[in-house]
Every structure is written in structure tokens, then in C-alpha cells.
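Reproducibility note. Readers wishing to regenerate the assembly model reported in the main text can use the exact inputs given here. Chain order matters: entities are listed in the order in which they were concatenated for prediction.
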Amino acid sequence: MARSRVALVDSGGTNIASVRYALDRIGADARLTRDPADILAADRVILPGVGAAGAGMRRLREAGLVEVLRAVEQPLLGVCLGMQLLFDRSAEDGGVECLGLVPGEVVPIPGAPGVRVPHMGWNTLTALREDPLTAGLPDGTRAYFVHSYAVPVTPDTVLTTQHSGTWSAVVRRGNRWGAQFHPERSARAGARLLTDFVLEVTP
Amino acid sequence: MTLARRVIACLDVSDGRVVKGTRFRDHQDMGGITELAARYSAEGVDELVFYDITASPQGRRVDLDWIDRVAREIDIPFCVAGGISSVEDARAVLLAGADKVSVNTPATRRPELVGELAREFGTQCVVVGVDSLRDEDGQWRIRQLTGDPDATRALETTTLAWVERVQELGAGEVVLNAMGSDGVRRGYDVEQLRAVRQVCQVPLIASGGAGSAQHFIDVFRDADVDGALAAGVFHSGELAIRDLKERLGEAGIEVRMDDPVPVGGPRTPPTTPPRIPRSSPTAGTPTSMEGTTA
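Running the prediction on these inputs yields the following C-alpha cells for the assembly.
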């Protein structure tokens, strides 16, 4: 089988090294790039990111990557903030227009007695439907989350997690996937998701 | 099921090695950083904290080489503490692959640092370590420069006021190190942690005093902390992470155990060697790809 070439979008966030090393560990053929031709020619595209939505979108605009990411037709995976940026809009930073590739809005996780924000740590996953990306993540699998804003359950939600409400943990719309947790820091479960993104999902 | 309580191992790092002993003197070599990180990770620890004990007292920055090696090796989150006193220090550490940075003495000297870090990297990256001791008047107050017993200073600020302040500034997590119980292994300072919990809306990590599984059970149950950190009791082998997790699970505390077996069995990762172009400034030499931990 021809190996998938993965473009890891150099979106300027601080978790890029971690995502890249996670791809190294599973033996993926990954290239860190912000070159539009590279991104559009890859078999798979991963958009990493941490931090605030406003700064994340600003970095993508400054790098000229907004239209490039909208033009990506091959499987695209947004990780953490990268997943949130796939949506129409985020309420963070007073309201930020995002990439608009998946319908919906990112909202703050409300604080509640006994529920801490940021949502930080290992939480369980529950499937709403089957998907090739999440075939290795049976209900009850734990993944590592760190975020203060989140995506409610939408028609595109594949996996959920609970923290002061039910939130999207993995989403999919067509060829666009997103993982709210950090697969690069989610031990075997994370490696399995990345491996399946590289090998299993089909355009 | 919901969010798991975290078990965190703290590794003191000096000159590229993991050491133990008092924070500043009589260091005993415990082994290589990446080897110990990989071992704890394989044993099921939820998170690691690396404390660069020489960076801060010597006024130099954290060595980035080992951070990069740890980031390549392990697949669980880790935090770096010690020697971070500016946005640029933090950026270098995060770009090398750390998930969080922890600031302590520099934040007591210049509290605005916490806000600067939060604005630049997001609150989720910013941990504030608080060294706290009860004074004769019964108040808990913070200490600075605790890495060096001769230099340690008591401050006027009460611990509760400081924990409230750092949250307003943008701390995403607080590690409360109860100095009165640190190193003596008689249990966490549950009374103090309960008080801090009342004013702490972000994740709170207990530190100082762990000597047995029961101590972890007590602190999770009675102080409602999100994580509990320990060093000596893990390093000595007295308490194995797996045994601890089992005990916690039996006590009804939500913890991360081994993942359920995936439907269709675990996937074998591809074995062909990766070809990763090394174009970024953070790239180093390729390491042990064949030893995939996937």
C-alpha cells in the first residue's frame, strides 16, 4: 500500500512539536509545512493548535492559510484548537469568525459546583455513531483534554465527553474531522486515532 | 464515568539527570530523564512534572535538549517547572514540546508574568506553583526561593489571597505544595488543601507529603483535588503507579486504568521507517523510531 503523505500545517501554535513527534512514533510520513502547494498535494492534512481562537485565526490569516485550508479536499483533521477553528465561529476573544468548514459555534464551558474550568485531564469517550477514525476507541476509552471552550453536540458529532454538560470530542463532516482532545498526548488511544487517520479514513 | 483524578509524578532534574535529595543539596542520581519518563509513562502515570532544580537558583534558563527528547519519547502530557521567568523562556520550553509551564518564585516577584503567559499561550498552559507554610498566627503564607533552604523567604501574602490573585491573572492550574508536610510522607495537608479548594475554581494539584496509597485516597476524597503529585514515594519504588491506581479505583475514585480493548483488536502501527523532513528549528536528530510506543 502506498504510504499516505501527511501535511502537518505549521499554524504557529506551541503544540506542533508534540503532534509531529506523535506522527513520528506511529511511523507516519509527515511534513511540517505552511506551503500551500505542499498542503494541497498531501494525502492527509492535520491542523494542530493550542491557545485562543483569536490568535489562532490571526496566525492562519497572516500565513495566508485560510483559503488554502478551505480548499483542502483530502481528509483533514483539526486537533484541539485546530478542531474548533473548523467551525463557523468561536465565542472566545469576544467572537471570532473561524474557517466555516463545519457548521456550529464554539462556546465557553460553564463553571459549575465541583466542575473545574479549564477542562483538564483524562476523560472518557462515548460514541454517538461509528466512524473509521474512531473504530479503535470503544466507549470508556480515556483521552487527554485541555480546553476552556468547547463544541456542543451537533449533527456532526461522532464521540462525546462529559464535563459540565455533553461536548463534542470528535466530529466529522464529509472529509473534515476534528478531535477536541490531544491525540499526541493521549497514550495508546491517541496513537490509534492518528494511525487510523493516516491509514484508514478514505477520501 | 467522567474526568479522572490525576496521579502525577514529579522528577527533579539537574544537569541532564534525574536526582533526588533535598531540592538543593546532596543529590543522588536516579537515572536518565527520558528513561525514567518512559518508565513512568508505561506504568500508567497520568502526567509528569519536570522540575529543573538548578535553573532557577543559578539564574539560568531550562536546558531545552532534554525537553525535546522527552517530548519525542512519551505520549502523555508533561509540565516543566523551574527557571521560567519570562514569556520568551516559556515559549522556548513549549515549542520544545512541553504541554505546560509552571512558575513559582518569578510569579511572586512579578505577578503580571502569569497574565502575560496566559495571554500569549492560553491559560491551559499556565500552572502556578505555590509553596506554602503555616505561620505561628495560624495563617498559611507563601514562600519564595524554596529551592535553596538558605535563600527561602517568607512573604506577607496569605496563600488563599495568592491563589485567588493568580486565578484572576490567568492561571489555568494551581499546584499547592504544603511545605510543612513535604518530604515527611505522613500524608498531604488535607486541611490546607480543603481551604485552598474553596477559593480555587481551576484545577488544583496537591503536593507534599505522599507516603502511601491511603494518602492519595484521603486527599482526593477529603480535599476534592483534581490531581495529586508525588516524587520520593514513587522513585523509591515503595508505591507502584499501577498498585496505586488499583487502590484508588477500589476506593471509588475515578482514575485512568488501561483502555478498554478496541473492537477488532489493537492496530499494529506501520513499521516502515518514517521520512520526516527536518525543516523546523525545533527539529533534532531522529531517534528510536523502531521503538514505537503506539
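We highlight two features of this model. Chain A touches chain B through 64 residues (CB under 8 Å). The first helix of chain A runs from residue 16 to 25.
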